[in-house]
Specification:
Radius of gyration: 21 Å
Distance between the termini: 18 Å
CATH class of the largest domain: Alpha Beta
Structural class: alpha/beta
CATH topology of the largest domain: Rossmann fold
Shape: globular
Helix content: 40-55%
Strand order of the largest sheet: 3-2-1-4-5-6-7
CATH superfamily of the largest domain: Glycogen Phosphorylase B
Oligomer: single chain
């Protein structure tokens, strides 16, 4: 069996991490000859890949990942969009030639843009194509272009993998397809017994410093109760375009000793393992890896009940974590107080949260993927 993954890049991100982990598993499975990854852009690879995995890029020129971010507006944005459209015609030609030289049994595409590109070549591709949707479709396909391409091209796919029930329901309204809900696998480094002992006086958040993650909500919610819990610090791990604006708010409001932007770290599991609380403050998510990892470490967790339902599928409210309304600062402050003020309650939440690892261990998730791939190839689903 020959398998190809197609994505924009393999830099840091939820979809990219899943592809890296899944590729490392599949390439060592019996009856799998090779696993390839085709990237649109030639940029840094953020994950360790088995040497047997071959990585190809459509673009030959190396580009830094941060330079791919689209922060343009107005006329400049329009010009860039037209240039990208023209460039994509050339990219599709290169991709078509790449695929003609390979005899894949299945192609698995992650994220909308790669999926649009590969499905537009469907008539030239002999093997089945699986599309993996990773985010809230109501936001992912919220403009005329993406909604049109999704409705036109996605029916050509041979199978779909969704992360949440809400995402599946969105597409069920449009067309019926061979599909399955598969959670994100957790890295084995994050599977541990819940920490027993006095926890560090830290509240942690992990995520890109972007609007979607809404760390400003968390900072303001913490600011409201900081005097009541004066031993605690809020530590935010991650980097992004909002770093300066978040730091400016921290500095201007005299929070520099209490709120720390710690950047990206290599040993994240060690850094957060003894924390008193993990908070996900996002406006929307697919299946949030950071929340999964925190729960598997046995850390008490709070998450916004954000679309498209990922946190709701992980957290049984008030049993293994707490859910609060999106962008509700008052609810978030109260939830933080509820956990920090009751050690026994927090301990119980953490112990129950750690049981999630039974559902999301890489052994379980990788096998679910492999079985779905086999069914799509054989046409028995």
């Amino acid at each position: 069996m020959k398998i190809c993954f197609f994505i924009t890049t393999v830099t840091k991100g939820g979809a990219e991490r899943v592809i890296a982990n899944l590729s490392n598993y599949l390439v060592n499975e019996e009856n799998i000859e090779n696993v390839d990854i085709i990237n649109i852009y030639n940029t840094e690879i953020s994950y360790d890949l088995d040497p047997k995995i071959k990585v190809y890029t459509i673009e030959k020129k190396f580009v830094k990942h941060q330079n791919l971010m689209n922060n343009h507006k107005g006329l400049v944005k329009f010009i860039k969009h037209v240039a990208k459209y023209i460039k994509n015609i050339h990219r599709k030609h290169i991709l078509k030639n790449m695929l003609n030289k390979s005899d894949y049994d299945v192609i698995i595409s992650f994220l909308p843009e790669p999926s649009f590109m590969i499905l537009s070549l469907k008539k030239y591709i002999k093997c089945p194509i699986i599309v993996s949707d990773r985010n809230d479709p109501n936001l992912e396909y919220n403009n005329i272009r993406t909604k049109y391409l999704m409705k036109k091209l996605y029916p050509l796919a041979d199978g779909f993998v969704f992360q949440t029930l809400d995402a599946k329901r969105y597409f069920d309204k449009l067309f019926t397809k061979k599909n399955q809900i598969i959670f994100n696998p957790v890295n084995k480094n994050f599977i541990r017994e819940s920490y027993i002992g006095e926890r560090e006086k830290t509240i942690v958040n992990v995520g890109r410093l972007e609007n979607q993650k809404n760390q400003m909500l968390l900072i303001k919610a913490f600011e409201k109760i900081k005097d009541e819990f004066n031993e605690y610090k809020l530590i935010i791990y991650g980097d992004g375009t909002l770093k300066k604006s978040l730091q400016d708010y921290i500095t201007n409001n005299n929070l520099t000793e209490r709120v720390i932007l710690a950047g990206e770290v290599e040993d994240l599991n060690e850094k957060i393992y003894k924390s008193s609380l993990f908070v996900l403050s996002s406006d929307y998510e697919g299946m949030p890896n950071a929340l999964i990892e925190a729960m598997c470490l046995g850390i008490p967790v709070i998450s916004t009940d954000c679309p498209c339902g990922g946190p709701r599928m992980l957290i049984d409210n008030n049993e293994n974590g707490l859910l609060v309304e999106v962008n509700n600062q008052e609810q978030l402050s109260e939830a933080i107080k509820k956990i920090l003020s009751n050690n026994e309650y927090a301990k119980e939440l953490g112990i129950k949260a750690s049981r999630l690892s039974e559902k999301v261990s890489s052994d379980v998730i990788d096998k679910e993927w492999l079985e779905f791939i086999k069914k799509i190839i054989k046409g028995v689903i």
